[in-house]
Automatic annotation (TrEMBL), chain A:
<dbReference type="GO" id="GO:0004853">
    <property type="term" value="F:uroporphyrinogen decarboxylase activity"/>
</dbReference>
<feature type="domain" description="Uroporphyrinogen decarboxylase (URO-D)">
    <location>
        <begin position="4"/>
        <end position="256"/>
    </location>
</feature>
<protein>
    <submittedName>
        <fullName>Uroporphyrinogen decarboxylase</fullName>
    </submittedName>
</protein>
<dbReference type="InterPro" id="IPR000257">
    <property type="entry name" value="Uroporphyrinogen_deCOase"/>
</dbReference>
<dbReference type="GO" id="GO:0006779">
    <property type="term" value="P:porphyrin-containing compound biosynthetic process"/>
</dbReference>
<dbReference type="Pfam" id="PF01208">
    <property type="entry name" value="URO-D"/>
</dbReference>
<dbReference type="InterPro" id="IPR038071">
    <property type="entry name" value="UROD/MetE-like_sf"/>
</dbReference>
<dbReference type="InterPro" id="IPR052024">
    <property type="entry name" value="Methanogen_methyltrans"/>
</dbReference>
UniProtKB/TrEMBL annotation, chain B:
<keyword id="KW-0479">Metal-binding</keyword>
<dbReference type="GO" id="GO:0046653">
    <property type="term" value="P:tetrahydrofolate metabolic process"/>
</dbReference>
<dbReference type="GO" id="GO:0050667">
    <property type="term" value="P:homocysteine metabolic process"/>
</dbReference>
<dbReference type="InterPro" id="IPR036594">
    <property type="entry name" value="Meth_synthase_dom"/>
</dbReference>
<keyword id="KW-0170">Cobalt</keyword>
<feature type="domain" description="B12-binding">
    <location>
        <begin position="88"/>
        <end position="217"/>
    </location>
</feature>
<dbReference type="InterPro" id="IPR036724">
    <property type="entry name" value="Cobalamin-bd_sf"/>
</dbReference>
<dbReference type="GO" id="GO:0046872">
    <property type="term" value="F:metal ion binding"/>
</dbReference>
<dbReference type="InterPro" id="IPR006158">
    <property type="entry name" value="Cobalamin-bd"/>
</dbReference>
Length: 278, 217
């Protein structure tokens, strides 16, 4: 792992150096892993302090996305396209771990699980490829998790695969600012809730007024009829975002996000400071 | 045959990841004396189009990645690395700052090489190592790829250290943080950003066209 003072830890050199190593791998056991046990202790502590009032969201990496960190992105793409048998074996190993880890967090008091799966996003693999791979993995994995799950694309796009997502069993999907939030809402209403989609990176430079405008626009696009959780579009806000901006966002949510909404559906979307290029 | 027809055929072969058809189109339009020309006419526009399609969400990353790799191989075959027929250019290098996630860099490297350029690949480096290599190699065009926001912010320190060393390369940056905040490149002291690998080639080409002669070769 690479640690820095100014951001989240980053995975260091991948541990799987050749695809052949996959044959001999075994999934780790949660109870044998001190860092995972520590997360469970923290979850129990939060549950004790927050009771039924504050939801606690546990996190897992999807079996389909974690190989980027296990073996590197380029070797993983090659594995997917050139060695389907080893790819399949890696998925089964990662699924076993992912299910075990999600259920351990739920047992420790997590209210729901966020399943991060950006590799399934249409930014990374084509919708047809997703249907053959990431979708199958998500269906098998989510079916064995004993609680509600949000499927999160970590700011990758999901519009082209939207109609496939209810089959995963996810109750919520985490969506990107690169997709049109109002259109997503229209197509998912009554089927899945949306979680998103503020631009956490650009947020560093927002004034309190811009923060309010962005919050208001997101609520106007997706708040009507419920089923919307406002957040950034990646599930993690950079340390560099000033606290005042976060407080302005929170204030704006209280102001514009209380039902019945005092905001018209037609209200024009707030534009990003400049068009993002993704 | 219209001008755009071979581009269309080549593009479709790349997107279908069909090496044989792509090679056939490329060889079909190569006169022995115009190898760089076919790169300019066929390879560069196709990769540019694929980059645009990815930006618009119409093709997936795996298609962009595979197209870059296939073109790099094919261009290497007709224009080997030290061939005088390659682009006349000053020393150029690419690096990933503070990160082991190298796919973005790999794609930029492939697409530049497939467009006839040569560049040193420094792999994963920290700021200090990057500065000393750039100074040592007399790099004139420096490409930096990052994945995380903190690494993007560290580019500023790299620029300052290069300035102190009296070294002023053109710095072209890219990677997710720059795509999500299109003002960030200025803040970190870069000279330009590009949203896709193919757009990076366009920036490099334009820069080299305007570079004084003494910087070349
Ligand atoms: C897929 C993904 C993942 C995957 C794989 C990431 C990887 N490559 O290693 C996984 C699931 C592992 C992951 C994990 C994390 N991620 Co992530 N992830 C993404 C996502 C959706 C796509 C990134 C990607 O790999 N794209 C494919 C590559 C090839 O594209 P690219 O690097 O952008 O390169 C293209 C262009 O940018 C350009 N380019 C790139 N470099 C250069 C250089 C030059 C000179 C030029 C000209 C062009 C150029 O060319 C390429 C092709 O055209 C992005 C969001 C997004 N929509 O982009 C977040 C994102 C990169 N992730 C982010 C974060 C924070 C993380 C985590 C730290 C989260 C956490 N707390 O654990 C972890 C740590 C990752 C790690 N390495 O350990 C943030 C980073 C920014 C920040 N906030 O600091 C992003 C931007 C999300 C966001 N909106 O905030 N992630």
């Amino acid at each position: 792992m690479l640690y820095t003072d100014d951001g989240p830890p980053n995975a260091g050199r991948p541990m799987i150096r050749t695809p052949e190593q996959i044959r001999a791998l075994e999934p780790p056991q949660v109870a044998d892993s001190p860092c995972l046990v520590k997360v469970l202790e923290a979850t129990r502590g939060l549950k004790a302090a927050g009771g039924e009032e504050t939801p606690i969201i546990g996190v897992v990496m999807s079996p389909f996305s974690v190989p980027v960190m296990q073996m590197g992105f380029e070797p993983y793409l090659n594995l997917m396209f050139e060695q389907p048998d080893l790819f399949e074996r890696l998925m089964r190993l990662n699924e076993a771990f992912c299910i075990q880890w999600a259920n351990a967090q739920l047992a420790a008091g997590a209210t729901a699980i966020c399943y991060f799966d950006p590799i399934s996003s249409s930014t990374i693999v084509s919708p047809e490829h997703f249907r053959r791979t990431g979708l199958q993995v998500a269906m098998r994995t989510l079916a064995a998790i004993n609680g509600p799950v949000a499927m999160h694309f970590a700011s990758g796009r999901c519009m082209p695969i939207l109609d496939d997502l209810p089959r995963t069993g996810a109750a919520v999907i985490g969506v990107s600012m690169l997709d049109d939030l109002a259109a997503l809402k229209q197509r998912t209403a009554g089927k899945m809730a949306l979680l998103g989609n503020l631009n956490g990176i650009e947020m560093r430079r927002w004034t309190p007024q811009q923060a309010e405008a962005q919050v208001r626009a997101a609520i106007a696009a997706a708040g009507h009829g419920g089923g919307f959780i406002l957040s950034d579009n990646h599930g993690e806000i950079p340390y560099q975002v000033p606290e005042d901006t976060l407080l302005a966002i929170s204030e704006a949510v209280h102001r514009w996000g209380t039902y019945p909404l005092d905001i018209s559906r037609e209200s024009p979307s707030a534009q990003p400071l400049k068009d993002p290029r993704s | 045959m219209t001008q755009s027809e071979p581009v269309e055929t080549f593009l479709n072969a790349l997107l279908a990841m069909d090496r044989v058809a792509a090679k056939r189109t490329l060889e079909g339009s190569t006169a022995a004396d115009a190898r760089l020309d076919v790169v300019e006419r066929l390879v560069v526009p196709s990769l540019e189009r694929i980059g645009d399609l990815w930006e618009r969400g119409e093709v997936s990353l795996s298609q962009v990645y595979m197209s870059g790799r296939m073109c790099e191989e094919m261009v290497d075959a007709i224009l080997p690395p030290s061939d005088p027929g390659r682009v006349d250019q000053p020393p150029m290098a690419i690096a990933v700052l503070d990160d082991y996630h190298l796919l973005g860099k790999r794609m930029v490297y492939s697409v530049l090489r497939a467009s006839g350029y040569e560049l040193k690949d420094y792999g994963t480096v920290d700021g200090e190592a990057l500065v000393s290599r750039v100074v040592r190699d007399g790099i004139v065009v420096l490409l930096i790829s990052v994945l995380m926001l903190p690494s993007a912010l560290h580019i500023k320190t790299v620029r300052e250290a290069l300035d102190r060393a009296g070294c002023r390369p053109f710095i072209l940056v890219g990677g997710a943080p720059f795509r999500f905040d299109t003002e960030l490149w200025r803040e970190v002291g870069a000279d330009a950003m590009a949203a896709t690998a193919a757009e990076g080639v366009a920036v490099v080409r334009k820069l080299l066209d305007h570079l004084p002669k003494e910087y070349r070769s």
